[in-house]
Design a protein that fits this description.
It contains 10 helices and 18 strands. It is an alpha/beta fold.
């Protein structure tokens, strides 16, 4: 048999493959966030592409943007929180996800132990490109139906901050109806969610803030009372108002953290998930063991936590507090507002 000459012809390379573009907020260097055209993500097995309707900001995005976060890499598309419509699915993914309205769980690869995240744990928005873009890819296992009672802006506001606060309050803090709960530094997304979760659960909630306006906003959401933590006698005033706390939620640490040991009731739980005011100060160890206190660290949450949070939200129809909605192309403006911590609740980007 005579070979056909075509058997020896190498197909020509196609150097003219058309890459489909999209727009995204790309962090190219510290303090250099640029709205620009980039290549739309391509999917691997088990992945989906979500067309973003809204994306929520978190304090994490701010720290990454100014170069003060672990594992930095450039370029990076910021954004952990997003809500949108499933535009594409790859093989191995149920096609019924197509065109569904969804929210994305940004806590990926938690691991096998519910008590702590494994070495492969990561958060959407670094290292993987995030939601401050027209499209984002994720694995189908991190998709959930958008709560029907929420609009698009509200749906993008809760995943990261809500999950962090939910795990801190319920999984770690074991808050229950009737407990007295202190939310330290209310105003940002996590603090406001912790307040909303605790009020919905039937707790008696107290808050601190450096802003009288934020304390009043917290009272409107159900807080019993609040004090300004810049006042010299803030802890004594809280003790007088409350009689002590079963659960204390904090995201700052710093020198004021030592006061929580006195404010906690015997058997109380002090839970923290941030250190924006510095490291933990020297604290009176004898009081901790004599009062049988627990000081607990936490971050983000498990798949179980996320699903429990969604069930809790749907049961109580909790509406996330939106401070401001900005166009997706104006992420720089939104992050600048977060720089001075002037918001109460969440800042959202809208496509």
């Amino acid at each position: 048999m005579v070979p056909n000459i075509r058997d020896f012809v190498v197909p020509p390379r196609n150097d003219n493959i058309i890459l489909i573009p999209m727009k995204a907020n790309v962090l190219e260097a510290t303090d250099k966030l640029v709205w620009k055209e980039v290549e739309k993500p391509t999917l691997a097995t088990g992945e989906v592409l979500v067309k973003i309707k809204t994306a929520g900001l978190n304090r994490r995005d701010y720290w990454i943007s100014i170069g003060k976060y672990a594992g930095l890499k450039y370029p990076t598309i910021l954004g952990s929180d997003g809500a949108g419509v499933v535009a594409e699915v790859d093989e191995g993914v149920d096609s019924s996800w197509l065109n569904k309205e969804v929210v994305i769980n940004p806590a990926n690869n938690w691991g096998n132990d519910e008590n702590y995240q494994g070495k492969d744990f990561k958060i959407l928005g670094l290292p993987d490109d995030g939601t401050f873009a027209e499209y984002v890819k994720t694995r189908a296992e991190y998709l959930y139906d958008k709560p029907a009672y929420l609009n698009w802006e509200q749906a993008a506001a809760f995943p990261l901050a809500g999950l962090t606060a939910f795990r801190a309050l319920f999984t770690k803090g074991r808050a229950k109806k009737g407990d007295k709960v202190l939310i330290s530094g209310v105003g940002g997304g996590t603090g406001v969610f912790a307040l909303q979760w605790a009020v919905a659960a039937g707790c008696q909630v107290f808050v601190t803030s450096s802003s009288g306006d934020k304390i009043e906003r917290a009272r409107q959401l159900g807080a019993q009372a609040g004090v300004n933590y810049k006042a010299q006698d803030w802890a004594e005033e809280l003790q007088h108002l409350s009689g002590g706390f079963d659960v204390i939620i904090d995201s700052a640490l710093g020198h004021g953290f030592a006061k929580f040991v006195d404010l906690a009731k015997s058997g109380g739980r002090i839970v923290f998930f941030g250190a924006t005011a510095g490291d933990m100060p020297s604290i009176p160890g004898r009081k901790i063991y004599w009062k049988q206190l627990q000081i607990l660290g936490t971050t983000m949450g498990t798949k179980t936590d996320f699903e429990a949070m969604l069930d809790f939200m749907n049961k109580h129809e909790i509406i996330p507090v939106i401070d401001e909605v900005c166009p997706l192309a104006e992420a720089v403006k939104a992050i600048e507002k977060m720089r001075n911590s002037s918001q109460f609740g969440n800042i959202v980007l809208k496509a």
